[in-house]
Amino acid sequence: MIQTENTAIVLRHVDYRDNDRMVTLFSPSRGRIDAVIRNCRKPRSHNLNAGELFALGDYMLYESGGRTTVTSVRLTETFYTLRENYERLTCGTYLLSVTEAVVEPEQERQELFMLLLHTLSRLAFSDQPWRPLLAGFLLHFAAAEGFKPRLNHCVACGRSLEEGPFFFDLEEGGVLCAACREAKRQSGEPGEKDRVSLAPQQLRWMREALGRGSAAWLDTPESYAPLPLLRRYVEGRLGRRIRSAALLPE
């Protein structure tokens, strides 16, 4: 029998029995933790908000017989304002789903935890458009997970990329010069649909976003952040369906 306190955020929940809730917690020091919160759905429960999506706090966990139970919670933030805007709420839910796809039990993930919190905080408490925020998250998520896109040299010939037109090769994970893209097309090499046109300002945006770090998003026009491309790239690398992606506005 072990009792520990863990800072964590709720990534997912499922109602269980009459008043309980199963939650998937993400702890920066322990990764994924699956636990049950007893009676949290009762109207007067002290843990009423602790089992909601986005809930952030210090969770006291009691572990026995292979099961984990939340005994008490000291909440830090609920990100309640996300529930007041449908687009930001669906974006936040998507962030949780992408994060859940990679976190594993007993795996320290400090960098990913802070990336998620930085993004949720901006999403909930700033007036920054959600599309560049999500694009920035996916770009830094790819870097944290070991498949950071290669943006400075052509992934085929290795030449420095300064002048367009540019293309992004989703399979190779980086930018392709126009000459190499055409050579691949002429040779009939498979994967043409995965070589996506990339505007010069979009390439500059990605380079600068990576250079500044995950805590400093860019205040730029939404069109500069290649969200559809980054979604395809990350979701393809994850190799699994992100169900909440269907809820994202076009």
What does this protein structure show overall?
With 250 residues, the protein is of the alpha+beta class. The protein has a domain at 2-77: OB fold (Dihydrolipoamide Acetyltransferase, E2P). It has six helices and eight strands. It has helices spanning 86-100, 110-125, 130-144, 178-187, 200-212, 227-238; strands at residues 2-16, 20-27, 31-37, 56-64, 67-77, 166-169, 174-177, 195-198. Strand 4 (56-64) and strand 5 form a beta hairpin. Helix 1 runs parallel beside helix 3 (130-144).
Strand arrangement in the largest pleated sheet? 1-2-3-5-4
Number of strands: 8
Low-confidence stretches: none
Outline = elongated
Rg result: 21 Å
Strand % is 15-25%
Q: Could you name the CATH class of one domain?
A: Mainly Beta
The CATH topology assignment of one domain is OB fold (Dihydrolipoamide Acetyltransferase, E2P)
Instruction: Report, as a whole number of angstroms, the end-to-end distance.
Output: 49 Å
Counted by DSSP, the helix tally is: 6
What's the pLDDT, averaged over the residues? 91
The largest sheet is:
5 strands, mixed, barrel
Any idea what the CATH architecture of one domain is? Beta Barrel
Provide the succession of SSEs: EEEEEHHHEEHEHH
Strand pairing plus helix content: what structural class? alpha+beta
Output the CATH homologous superfamily of one domain. Answer: Nucleic acid-binding proteins
Helix percent band = 25-40%
